[in-house]
Specification:
Elements lengths: L4 H19 L5 H7 L3 H9 L3 H8 L3 H7 L2 H28 L1 H20 L7 H19 L9 H15 L6 H7 L3 H10 L2 H28 L1 H19 L3 E8 L5 E8 L6 H28 L1
Antiparallel strand pairs: 1-2
Helix pairs in contact: 1-2, 1-6, 2-7, 3-12, 4-5, 6-7, 7-13, 7-14, 8-13, 9-10, 9-12, 12-13
Protein name: DUF368 domain-containing protein
Keywords: Membrane, Transmembrane, Transmembrane helix
Organism: Candidatus Phocaeicola faecigallinarum
Length: about 300
């Protein structure tokens, strides 16, 4: 696919959207990739980092390798994700701490709309797709209500956390950040990002690289051969994850960070009790943003 400079700038912005979502424990970068219309290309590009193309790299055929893995696309997305994670980590965590209802309301609208638009890509609803959808809802809902665990901080476990979390990050509806919460390592990794702990980040990143290059093959195969069923499961994931992004919550358990400050760890949903009008407005804004992006993406495909 031939792209101009402005197209790559747009890809960087889309990557930034994915990175911003990945920082939030409840919203998936995969959901954003679906919303902005790059999901299939992202999965196929990651899948292309294989033995065949790596041989090109190690034999000095760098341009062939770069073309084989759709390098310009991947580096644009990676750049955007990196910019967001390292620049927005403090901002997002501050917003979630100081303005949680408004932030979650916006994301609720985003996820709700993306659930609808992804479901529209399912060409046929039958017992297989309906069952797949129900399974997806059930898995996502269970993950959102699971209790975070106390886990070790050795390098092997950090490596495994990276491999597991990255798989969730490219699944719409399943938040990699929330998987880290369940593994007891979300705040640990966020602290490493904010302090730029290079050792922890390299170990975590190595696990993420192994995880994403392996899992992308499974996803690519499923989308190619069982697209309706796969999309049904992913739609279910999104719908089930709405439980996690419900704006109104009550904290039932706290944790103490490295500075001795108590922060929420486990929360439960409650009925709307404050900022109701503002939250509803932000839900609508989030929904309309996805609607606008979907229409824009459809218009570009028609023009192409």
């Amino acid at each position: 696919m031939e792209r101009k400079l402005k197209d790559y700038a747009t890809l960087v912005l889309k990557g930034m959207g994915m990175g911003a979502a990945d920082v939030v424990p409840g919203v998936s970068g995969g959901t954003i990739a679906f919303i902005v219309g790059i999901y299939d290309e992202l999965i196929n590009s990651i899948k292309s980092i294989n033995v065949k193309n790596l041989k090109l790299l190690f034999t000095g055929k760098i341009m062939e390798f770069w073309k084989g893995i759709n390098g310009n696309f991947l580096i644009s997305i990676i750049l955007g994700v990196g910019i967001s994670i390292f620049s927005l980590a403090k901002v997002i965590t501050w917003l979630l701490t100081d303005h949680p209802i408004l932030v979650w309301a916006f994301f609720f609208g985003l996820v709700l709309a993306s659930t609808w638009f992804v479901s529209k890509d399912i060409k046929e609803w039958n017992w297989k797709t309906i069952l797949s959808f129900i399974i997806g809802v059930g898995i996502a809902y269970y993950i959102t209500v699971a209790t975070p665990a106390e886990t070790p901080t050795n390098y092997l476990f950090i490596f495994l956390c990276g491999a597991i979390a990255i798989c969730a990050m490219i699944l719409p509806g399943i938040s990699g950040s929330f998987i880290l919460v369940l593994l007891g390592k979300y705040f640990y990794i966020m602290e490493a990002v904010k302090t730029f702990d290079i050792v922890i980040l390299l170990v975590f990143g190595s696990g993420a690289f192994i995880g994403i290059t392996s899992f992308s093959r499974v996803l690519s195969y499923a989308l190619k051969n069982f697209r309706n069923i796969t999309l049904s499961v992913l739609t279910g994931f999104m719908l089930g994850s709405l439980n996690k992004v419900w704006p109104w919550k009550r904290v039932v358990e706290f944790y103490t960070d490295s500075h001795g400050v108590a922060k929420p760890l486990i929360e439960e949903n409650i009925l709307p009790n404050q900022y109701v009008v503002e939250a509803v407005v932000l839900m609508v804004v989030g929904f309309l943003l996805v609607y606008f992006l979907e229409k824009l993406s459809s218009k570009k495909q028609i023009e192409a």
